[in-house]
Amino acid sequence: MPFYSYKAIDSWGQMEKGVAEGADEAYVSTSLSAAGLYILSIRKLNSFSKFYMDKIRSRGIAIRDIIEFANNLSVMVKAGLPLLTSLGDISETIENHNFKRKLTEIRRMIELGSGFSAALACHKDVFPELFIHLVSVGEETGRLDKSLSDIAVHLQRMEDLKNAIKKALIYPTFALVSTTGALLFWLVYVLPKIMVLFREMEVELPLLTRILMASSDFTRAYWYVFFLAVGAIAGAYKLMLRKERTKYYIDVAKLRLPVVKLVVFNKLQALFAEQLRIMLESGLTIDKSFDILIKVMENVVFKRALSTVKEDILLGSGLHEAIKKHGKLFPGLVVRLIHIGEETGDMVEQLNYLSEEFIKRLNDISQKMEKMIEPIVIVMIGGIFLVIIAGLFLPIYDLVASVGK
Fold it and tell me: For 157, which of 6, 45, 231, 308 is 20 to 30 Å away at the CA?
């Protein structure tokens, strides 16, 4: 939803300046007038300003707030309360000021004649696109309470999926940070003190020791280069993700790298099954469901496969036949259960099982990640400190050998 800066005079005759959010200038003008302001001027903000206003106004709104909102609204609508009354009651109990403001604006748009889904669509910075689509379906079918309840369950599963991935990444992140920290500590504090002795004794140093000394001196003198390098790599990675061609090769690598592929592959399967389940259950057609799926999937490899699957379905193929052509992306379990779902007419139940199964696998992977990563970490740390210890003891060995002679 666009933002408008305005100048107005309040009921006390004082000049007031501010920023308001609205579908168009007429909506903003009507809203401000209803608040008792006399409008002097309204100007639409540019896209750059809108980007930062979106960030500011959606700050602090967590997915749990959206889930709670969907649950509460579902219960109230099912009980027969009018939508406007329900939105007003819910907004009064919400503690998050940004979310309260969003709900107030949505309620005001409905009062001015907008549909609920259309009002939500003006706040895509907060409400996911799937949320808006399912509300629209609920409005059309007269089952808004069911759509909202399904949305709450779906968002909770997506949150569980996200948490499972976070758990799986905790140990690798800790291992990487701790190993890097230990290496920097040795290079900056420990090695320099030991190397001073070698310099004072004027011992002829082996190549490995000279390399360590040079590395230690460089790290102490240009420690900031390390942080600049990390920032440069992160920036380059983000730039590469903006181009579909380079992002495609990155996504291919994610599906092939040891350990990483376990997390990424199971995440994609869980996301595919859960998103397709909720859309089919809400009554969306298969082609519309795949249109949304293709937008939701972040992995370009998977996205392209889904595009091909959709084309095959539109040409008359069954869903299981279409995904079977992409055997590397869809395992036999997915193909088999979708085939059963097509034959029995119980596709939603089969997709529900697949969603739960792959989320469970991700949870199992997160618990086993430490054991999977531990050998790699041990080898890395052992190799680093083997080089350091060898660099320290080689000159000592040469010194002792020369004294013995």
Answer: 308
